[in-house]
Design goal:
Layout lengths: L1 E6 L6 H14 L4 E5 L6 H5 L8 E4 L2 E5 L2 H22 L4 H7 L5 H7 L1 H8 L4 E5 L5 H6 L2 H29 L7 H21 L5 E7 L3 H16 L4 E9 L7 H21 L4 E5 L8 H12 L14 E6 L2 E7 L8 E6 L2 E6 L2 E6 L2 H4 L3 E7 L2 E6 L7
Parallel strand pairs: 1-5, 1-6, 2-4, 2-5, 6-7, 7-8
Antiparallel strand pairs: 3-4, 9-10, 10-15, 11-12, 12-13, 14-15
Helix pairs in contact: 1-12, 3-4, 3-5, 3-9, 8-9, 10-11
The structure holds adenosine-5'-triphosphate and magnesium ion.
Magnesium ion (MG) binds next to helix 1.
């Protein structure tokens, strides 16, 4: 089974590209499911048909589902949420605030994704396409099981044993709500599910993330940040989709300036994401809805390629740590140390190889550290940060 997730800034065309990719996959004969995890669903608008909260038949080989987020929250988070609400109310928060605070950003989306594991185990589909919410919070949360694991192992178990002993006494002494065994059980169950999800989504052969961009400065900057973050936590981005390109044959003078601006940003996108492939989609003179148009868009976008292919399966950026210093490893297959020029610009590392430039958004913890020595090992550029005896 293949899982392909589309994410990117608000309004860039995630739903449209997800729908077009799904239609293309179905046309190629793959049993396809397209899911939307964004609480502001718009898949149904894109296909121009009703789509329910269970897999709904759209056309041959293609089902769609707009996940019922409230149901998924209740199912996965209910007992924990009830406890948190009681606790927050006890601490003086009003019920509305307590309810709002008991669900974290990104959580809705993570819960929606938990279904994936079932589809995977049942081998229900050849390919699942996911139209993600614009924030990327879900990936941030999915990166967390590592921290959750540490927490559960060290603190939770100890606390649970202690609580068993003190709960009857504590209950009489304070009226503070204490977590019951069912809260702990829900927590453990959820944690296991999250680990399973992370395994599925970080399996390079199964899951790929595709970043949808528009040739605009702010959009590219945000996607660079997402790209670094996703790489860092082991999620594989295998392609970039550049949407809303003004077609060559538009000669209107109003658009000629815009075409130049787009060209500049497309060069920057290329410098930021290379060696990932970029697929291009022109701006159309109409909104994109309905299967027929989506099918055409899918053909244009992927040309003769099969969208279920893994377009890139290496980690272009990796960060390793040893003894308090970090090593940023960047794949530069065509460079030698002699033709590399490099500098740090705010949160960005700019690497120039001959006439090509590459911009890498540094994770926050690296921006504050001194850059140390730089070596080229095989096809990898290794840049050290922090630690003793660094130069700059
Ligand atoms: N290449 C294009 N040409 C013309 N219209 C487009 C193109 N791509 C997207 N659109 C239109 O732009 C609008 C927004 O696209 P879409 O809903 O796919 O974006 P989104 O990234 O999913 O937005 P959101 O972040 O709100 O979920 C839609 O009306 C869609 O039909
Ligand atoms: Mg959308």
């Amino acid at each position: 089974m293949r899982i392909i997730l589309f994410t990117g800034k608000g309004g860039v065309g995630k739903t449209t590209v997800s729908a077009a990719t799904a239609v293309k996959c179905a046309n190629l004969g793959y049993k396809t499911l397209v899911l939307s995890t964004d609480s502001a669903h718009s898949l149904a608008d894109s296909f121009d048909i009703e789509i329910g909260n269970q897999p709904t038949l759209i056309t041959d080989n293609l089902h769609g589902e707009e996940i019922d987020i409230n149901y998924e929250i209740k199912r996965n988070w209910g007992p924990i949420q009830n406890f948190m609400q009681d606790f927050l109310k006890y601490r003086g928060f009003g019920s509305i605030i307590a309810e709002e605070l008991s669900v974290f950003p990104g959580m809705e989306e993570v819960f929606s994704l938990l279904q994936l594991k079932d589809f995977y185990v049942e081998d229900s589909y050849d390919v699942i396409i996911i139209d993600c919410a614009p924030t990327g919070d879900a990936f941030r949360l999915l990166a967390v099981p590592d921290i959750a694991k540490w927490y559960m192992e060290r603190i939770f178990n100890v606390e649970r044993i202690l609580l068993k002993a003190v709960r009857p006494v504590a209950k009489r002494l304070v009226d503070m709500p204490l977590p019951s065994d069912s809260v702990f059980e829900s927590m453990e169950g959820l944690y296991k599910n999250l680990i399973g999800m992370k395994e599925l989504l970080t399996d390079i052969e199964i899951s790929s993330i595709r970043l949808v961009i528009n040739p605009e400065k702010m959009v590219i900057k945000e996607s660079q940040r997402a790209f670094t973050f996703l790489n860092l936590f082991g999620f594989s981005v295998d392609a970039i989709i550049a949407n809303r390109i003004i077609p060559e044959d538009v000669k209107d003078p109003f658009y000629s300036k815009w075409k130049d601006i787009q060209k500049k940003h497309l060069t920057e996108a290329d410098e930021s994401f290379r060696p990932l492939p970029i697929f291009y989609l022109n701006l159309l003179d109409q909104e994109i809805t309905g299967i027929e148009l989506l099918s055409k868009i899918g053909d244009n976008l992927y040309d003769r390629k099969d969208p279920t292919e893994v377009f890139y399966n290496e980690k272009p950026i990796d960060i390793t740590e040893s003894n308090g210093s970090y090593c940023l490893c960047i794949k530069l297959p065509f460079a030698t140390k002699e033709n590399i020029d490099m500098w740090k610009k705010g949160e960005e590392l700019v690497i120039k190889v001959d006439k090509y430039k590459r911009n890498i958004h540094l994770p926050r913890f690296l921006t504050s550290l001194k850059m140390g020595n730089v070596t080229m090992e095989g096809k990898e550029l290794k840049i050290r940060f922090g630690g003793e005896g660094d130069g700059n």
